[in-house]
Amino acid sequence: MSQKLVIDPVTRVEGHGKVTIHLDENNKVEDAKFHIVEFRGFERFIQGHPYWEAPVMVQRLCGICPVSHHLAAAKAIDQIVGVNPEDLSLPAQKIRKLLHFGQVFQSHALHFFYLASPDLLFGAESDPLKRNVVGVAMEYPELAKKGILMRKFGQEIIKLTAGKKIHGIATTPGGVHKAITAKERQYFLNGKDIPSVDTMVEWSLEIIKFIKSYHEKNKNFLNTFAKYPSGHLGLVNKDNGFLELYNGVLRATDSTGNITLNDVHNDYYNEYFYENVKKWTYLKFPYLKHLGKEKGWNRVGPLARLNVCEGIETPLAQKEWIDFRAATNGKTNNMTMYTHWARLIEILYSAEMMRELLEDDDLLSNDLIRKGKRRKEGIGIIEAPRGTLIHHYEVDEKDRITRCNLIVSTTHNNEPMNQAVRWVANNVLDGKSKITEGMMNQVEVAIRAYDPCLSCATHAMGQMPLELQLIDHYGNIIDEKIRQ
Questions:
Q1: What pLDDT digit, counting tens, does each position of 301-356 carry?
Q2: 448 and 119 in contact (C-beta within 8 Å)?
């Protein structure tokens, strides 16, 4: 008789999810699943609203990455007013990109320093009373301080361009609301009231140096933990194949680097993707149509992006990308824990891009809005911190949204996260009669590498409760752990 072990909820992620691990009569793992147990319904209740409200409304999906939803929706709404991404004025493009890089920078800093670093610094099986951001601050005060200030810098960039750090409004159909003033940008360049953008670049290099040293010391763990073959999906620059976070073409590769989606324009994404539904989770399972459900799923996010791109346009991040690729002799990297290293390379890239943009006088221009011929449909795709984000809207003759389809980054990563959970179940928990807190945490470590945004529940405070039971084939509880 099959029994199950339950982890509910998964901690140190945005939102609420649970894990179930099914056991046979010998406590051997039969299956393991990562469930998303809440439902939002944005795709439905946005219907009937004027299209220009979409960028403001959909960013309420998330308090961690509202900018990503705001910009993806804005790109879609641009098309509805007849403006393609390349048709925006240069100042509007650059202001939007500054906003976007500020978002990626602060989100990656939040995940690495607040959510992931406790496991890396103290170990997955260390004392949970210490294995948290407070423990990091007490034992590594300089590292914690830099993490806090790096996130603050990104948030201040968001406030500069959108008016608020969370749920601001930067875009208008066909452009942006306002230019940047010389005084505003000098605030980020001179380093008087806040560490300068040059300091952000310097600190980004320091934390990459740390993660490379960490990899040298922990190769055996990092090279094997939650390692499994997968596809990889991300945007690349249409001209040179380089890393592209704001506006590129869709590229996917298989686990060995063979291209499975060859630089497809955003407008045609729906010709290549299906979304599968399973009864045990509210999160869908996207996959490439021509490869099918079993082989067509892809990882997205930092690891995938560094796998599918051919380089990075900024010099310091390019050098780090070369070192990252050298770790696998140039081959596709399918090792989940390398996502943290990839994420920090993107922090450096974002810092370099913010510096380049802040020094650009186009930010000061008032040439902000373009108009074109009205359309009935708009598609916006960007690379959010967690991966490829798709917004698709259709509108009627009265400007009301009639259809909305959102494929969120974490949705793409649904199958990869389930694969990670199964790996830990089969390699750490299989056949064990005694549960340890460290075993519980290793399941979560595998999920946390993807930095999933499950429901954007950023108002939660403290540590969520956790109950875990191991039940034998007779239905008896043979071990139990409860965290209040």
A1: 999 999 999 999 999 999 999 999 999 999 999 999 999 999 999 999 999 999 99
A2: yes
What is the C-alpha to C-alpha distance for residues 283 and 190, in angstroms, rounded to an integer?
Answer: 45
Q: How many CA atoms lie within 13 A of 13 on its CB side?
A: 26
Shared domain check, 302 and 286: yes
In a domain? residue 171: no
- Residue 41, C-beta contacts closer than 8 angstroms, at least 6 positions apart: none
Q: Is 324 helix (H, G, I), strand (E, B) or coil?
A: helix
pTM > 0.70:
yes
User: Which backbone phi and psi does 83 adopt, to 5 degrees?
Assistant: -120, 115
Q: How far from 464 is each of 20, 108, 190, 211, 482, CA to CA, in Å?
A: 18, 22, 41, 29, 11
Asked if 343 and 302 touch (Cβ cutoff 8 Å), the reply is yes
Q: What is the mean pLDDT of residues 44-64?
A: 90
**378 shares its domain with 424:** no
Report the distance separating Cα 154 and Cα 166, nearest Å. 11
Burial of 25 (0-12, 13-18, 19+ CB in 10 A): exposed
Radius of gyration of the chain (CA): 22
As a whole number of angstroms, the distance between CA 83 and CA 75 comes to: 9
- Measured distance CA(442)–CA(464) in Å, rounded: 17
**Whether residues 324 and 395 fall in one domain:** yes
